[in-house]
Amino acid sequence: MSIKDKISGFLQGVGLSAINAIARLGPYDLQSQSYGDDSRHQLDWYRGDGIDRPVVVFLYGGNWQSGQRRDYRFVADTLIRLNCDVVIPDYRLYPEVRFADILSDARQALAFVKAEVSTPIILMGHSAGAQLGSLLALEPGNADLAAFIGMAGPYDFYPFTEDEHWDLFSPDYEISQPVNFVSATAPAFYLLHGEDDQRVRRGHSKSLMQKQNEVGGVATREVYKDMGHVDIILSFSPFHRRRSQVVSDIHTFISNKRMS
């Protein structure tokens, strides 16, 4: 890693710490729970005031190799203010495990939440978390979800362009591609992408939307000008959310799902 990369990473970490420090002041109760036996099988459950609030299960990204739930407290803080409760699970990461295990962890976390609540559940993810969430939302057993919201997700990326992905997704490469599992019975898909995303290009969300609609599913898409891969998740920060079109659109979408 270059000195420039180290400095950039340090500054991003400081910024994230500041964002989450402000989020600690949010109007919610936080409880950490285990959903399985591994040390990574932990989730944070954020509960706001009121009853019958929908629950958003948020899956973070990190190229299936990094991430921890505490780094996304700012996402929960914003969603709490949109009248949702929020669950953010950790999951095992590559190279300790392969993709099938990562997907299994996400599936197990979602099942844990479904067993605990009777209110609508919305699955949401960013980047690799959006890929995981879309795969879960397309599984027949999850047709009862209220919706799936995917931000900057890779949904159609085979053959792989990163060498390590051949190992990460082995041996069953096809299970990594949400476009292989489109379904008319899946919950509504709301796919968001930055126009300037250079990490996961916006053609991924276009491909999944088109294929979902072709089989009779419901999928809509928003593309945001002058927004990159990280910008879309930083829209949830307390510094951006009041003016964020992303947050506004998600609020409208969730409100419409509650009324339907």
Instruction: Let me know the CATH homologous superfamily.
Output: Alpha/Beta hydrolase fold, catalytic domain
Shape: globular
Classification by helices and strands: alpha/beta
Structural domain tally: 1
Tell me the fraction of residues in β-strands, as a range: 15-25%
Task: Could you tell me the CATH topology label.
Answer: Rossmann fold
The run of helices and strands is HEEEHEHEHEHEHEHH
Which CATH class is shown? Alpha Beta
Low-confidence stretches: 1-11
Helix run count: 8
The largest beta-sheet arranges its strands as 1-2-4-3-5-6-7-8
Overall average pLDDT? 92
Rg over alpha carbons: 17 Å
Provide the helix percentage.
25-40%
- Examine the secondary-structure arrangement and name the CATH architecture: 3-Layer(aba) Sandwich
Report the end-to-end length measured between terminal Cα atoms.
50 Å
The number of E-state strands comes to: 8
